Amino acid sequence: MCQYFVKKLLTIIPMLLAVSIMVFLALELMPIDPINYLASPDMAANAQNLEALRNKLGLNDPIWLRYIHWIGGMLHGDFGYSIVNGAKIGDLIALKLPATLELAGAALILSTVMGIGIGLISSIRQNSIIDYIGRVFGVIGNSIPQFFFGIVVIQLFSIKLGWLPLGGRVNPGDVTFWDRLPNLALPAFTMAIAMTATLLRYTRNSMLDVLNKDYIKTARSKGIPEWKVYTKHAFRNSLGPVLVILCFRLPMLVGGSVVIENIFAWPGIGSTLLQAVSANDYPVIMMITLMIAAAILLASFLVDVMTALLDPRIRFS
Fold first, then answer.
1. Calpha distance 306→293 (Å, rounded)
2. Does residue 30 sit within a domain?
């Protein structure tokens, strides 16, 4: 088993290297000149000064040499500097990433509990009123864009009712996580809606498929209680597709938080990425894009691990 997991983990390295090359080449080919952001107006007036700055920063080196310097710096913990404000990209990510992880974690927990819970009830009480409501919610949750739903909840819970803050992560005087919880509620709920709808539909369909299997009928014929049939036999064997969706949603929560973070003024990686794109801050764009790609590859590895743990035939094949 360990050999299977190690082999899967080692395949991430060449894939991540290929992604880094594509990201580097894509942004190198963009019509963006970082010198225009680094040079002062006085320096920009002198072509010799600009050329000297290019040589100093290595921008006149061959593209393959620049890539080696870039990837080598990352391996040594040097992620470069923002060309807009000169801040270290590593410090910028360390400052913004906890906010995104907090938001993504809350959305993941909320959507998992709601999606799997409603999906189980819908499958057990098939064609009941709860099942119809769950199916309608599954369609609506996947159909409504997140930004529209975010505007609606802000209008309802913040402006009309005044129950929750309008945006931001921290209010003056907030110290603990529980103090920040009202600020987290609306963006986490908005992010969780689409994922809840997806999990609900996958859980329901997977459970219904398993409940029609012969071994479920055999378990019932033995007189096993219904609750044990659902929990021990049906739910455990229906987890495969659900876990795949959960694992692949992890990087999507991080990379897909761009819209939500900007609607709710949440100071995370998503809003930082949008600001970098608007300002043509390509070193920041490269690092955040590479980080999201690494998260997707890690999610793919987790899917392999979960699938192998649930089905031993896979790791022995």
1. 20
2. no
Q: Which residue has the higher pLDDT, 146 or 38?
A: 146
Judge contact between 290 and 92, C-beta under 8 A: no
Query: Which residues, listed in sequence order, are joined to residue 81 by a DSSP beta bridge?
Result: 88
Amino acid at 169: R
Q: Which domain holds residue 220?
A: 89-316
**Which among 106, 31, 96, 119 has a CA at the least distance from the CA of 284?**
96
pTM here is 0.76
Locus of tokens 């649930």: 310
pLDDT in tens, 44-73: 556 676 677 677 666 677 778 888 888 887
Contacts of residue 298, Cβ cutoff 8 Å, sequence gap at least 6: 12, 250, 251
Q: Which residue has the higher pLDDT, 279 or 131?
A: 131
Span of 32-46, 164-178, 219-233 with lowest mean pLDDT: 32-46
Q: Which residues are 88's β-sheet partners? A: 81
281/271 Cα distance (integer angstroms): 13
Q: What is the pLDDT of residues 5-41, one digit of tens each?
A: 777 777 878 888 888 888 888 777 776 666 666 666 6
Could you list the beta-strand ranges (E) of 46-165: none
Residue 247's alpha-carbon distances to 38, 199, 250, 276, in angstroms, are: 40, 12, 6, 28
CATH number at residue 100: 1.10.3720.10
Within a domain: residue 36?
A: no
At residue 63, what is the residue type? I
Number of separate domains in the chain: 1
> For residue 51, what are its two tokens?
């050329």
For residues 100 and 268, is the Cβ–Cβ distance under 8 A?
yes
Backbone angles phi and psi of 265, in degrees to 5:
50, 45
* Token pair in block for residue 242: 């659900």
Predicted pLDDT of residue 314: 58
Look up residue 128 and give its DSSP letter: S
Note whether residue 2 is domain-resident. Answer: no
| 128, two tokens | 């009941």
